[in-house]
Design brief:
Layout: H1 9-13, H2 18-21, H3 24-28, E1 55-58, E2 64-67, H4 69-75, H5 85-98, E3 113-119, H6 120-132, E4 138-143, H7 147-153, E5 159-166, E6 169-170, H8 172-179, E7 197-200, H9 214-226, E8 230-234, E9 259-264, E10 275-281, H10 282-293, H11 301-304, H12 307-337, E11 342-343, E12 352-357, H13 364-373, E13 379-380, E14 394-398, H14 404-421
Parallel strand pairs: 4-5, 4-7, 7-8, 8-9
Antiparallel strand pairs: 1-2, 3-10, 5-6, 9-10, 11-12, 12-14, 13-14
Helix pairs in contact: 6-7, 6-10, 12-14
């Protein structure tokens, strides 16, 4: 893989921060750090001046753990831009156990695959886009897609090209048709406009709730190989798959090291802690790290120290069970109130239901005006489209926060609104 051809001019111009390279975390993991090393190089504040001495946390199961004074000093201090070493090591093992990419390795001596911690997966996405998307580039993505992705991409001046999706995610035949505009033999020719980047949400996609089948992932990956594209596998709902076995990821099929994967613990652990991570080819992940150095510097050390590896496993099981029951409650209410006035597909992951209203050409006014008057709030489907000005008959309903009783009443009100508008 020639990764240099994918980089933007901005990304190619990034250089490591000299001060970051001399930080305690970086030096401590190198062979150049004897025990007698005295550093006057850093710009970190003295932790003895921090006002917090200790902290204690109580879990849902009643167990507790504490940050003593020593751990608190570390938690409140600057850390490496890739993440604190023990958390990065734990995440790499997690990725290896979950995905085990077939021809790459997390071993330092091979250095083919790497990982860095990000402030939620959204930061990871923005850094990846800054690294890979030039003005005028053709970028392929699901239709519809996550509105936050559109918000990040549209100001970059690229051409966003829809690829049709259905209840099973991106349709490979539709992707093949889009790509037929270009000859694979010309992909590397100077001036080629062939897309170099494909973005997809493979599980429980926001807003549709769709999950790609294994066969579709394989077909999409083979098309990416044919046209030498990178794939951004944005998978914040991977850990919210309701049925076992979980679907294999695109990363697990990545024989060429062309997948850049973004993960998030926002839905499993806490959205406010802002813990995400980017996994991908080492040359590109190292480049993401440079973008982080120039902006946030690193994800909050406090949220990294001891948190994810301690809380993740029990939280994951409990959260999946909760959202599965919430999904079932929403399906029951949809069948009860919306069967004659709407269409939908039950999601197998995530926290959203994508609903097509019958006899309604555009849901914008219905949702933003009439529904609010009737005290029921959803998201009109147009905000998830590249061109939000076009009529869209869909709405997105989330089953994450409301009780089953509230969901049932909301769908009762929605059914009345649809019937009035038809």
């Amino acid at each position: 893989m020639n990764y240099s051809r994918f980089l933007t001019a901005v990304s190619a111009a990034r250089r490591p921060s000299p001060i970051r390279l001399l930080s305690n975390d970086n030096i401590a993991t190198s062979s150049r750090s004897p025990p007698s090393m005295i550093s006057l190089a850093g710009g970190a504040p003295n932790p003895n001046t921090f006002p917090f001495r200790s902290a204690s946390f109580t879990m849902n199961d009643g167990s507790t753990f504490s940050f003593d004074e020593s751990l608190m000093k570390r938690a409140l201090q600057y850390s490496a831009s890739t993440g604190i070493p023990e958390l990065v090591a734990w995440m790499k093992k997690l990725q290896r156990d979950l995905h085990n990419p077939p021809s790459v390795s997390y071993s330092p001596e091979r250095g083919q695959m790497d990982l860095c911690v990000t402030t939620g997966s959204q930061e990871g996405l923005c850094k990846v886009f800054e690294m890979l998307v030039n003005p005028g580039d053709n970028v392929l993505l699901d239709s519809p897609t996550y509105s936050g992705t559109l918000a990040a991409l549209q100001p970059l001046g690229c051409n966003l090209i829809n690829v049709a999706s259905d209840e099973h995610g991106m349709v490979p035949a539709a992707l093949k048709e889009v790509l037929s505009r270009w000859d694979p033999a010309d992909v590397h020719q100077p001036g080629s406009t062939a897309p170099r980047l494909l973005y997809t949400i493979p599980n429980g996609g926001n807003p549709t709730g769709a999950s790609m089948t294994t066969q579709r992932k394989q077909e999409v990956y083979e098309l990416a190989r044919l046209y030498d594209m990178l794939i951004i596998e944005d998978d914040p709902y991977f850990f919210l798959q309701f049925d076992k076995p979980w679907a294999p990821s695109l990363l697990s099929m990545d024989v060429d090291a062309r997948i850049i994967r973004t993960d998030s613990f926002s839905k499993i652990l806490s959205s406010g802690l802002r813990i995400g991570f980017v996994t991908g080819p080492a040359p590109l992940v190292k480049r993401v790290e440079l973008h982080i150095q120039a902006s946030t510097m690193h994800t909050s050390t406090f949220t990294q120290v001891r948190c994810v590896s301690v809380w993740f496993s029990p939280s994951c099981r409990r959260v999946i069970e909760f959202y599965s029951k919430q999904r079932d409650a929403m399906m029951s209410s949809a069948d009860k109130w919306l069967k004659d006035v709407a269409e939908w597909h039950a999601p197998s992951a995530g926290m959203f239901l994508w609903i097509k209203l019958k006899g309604i050409a555009d849901t914008q006014q219905l949702i933003m005006e009439k529904a609010i008057e009737k005290e029921v709030l959803m998201v009109p489907g147009g905000v998830f489209m590249i061109d939000s000005s076009k009529p869209c008959p869909y709405v997105r309903a989330a089953f994450s926060l409301s009780t089953p009783q509230q969901i049932d009443e909301a769908f009762r009100r929605l059914s009345l609104l649809i019937r009035e508008a038809q």
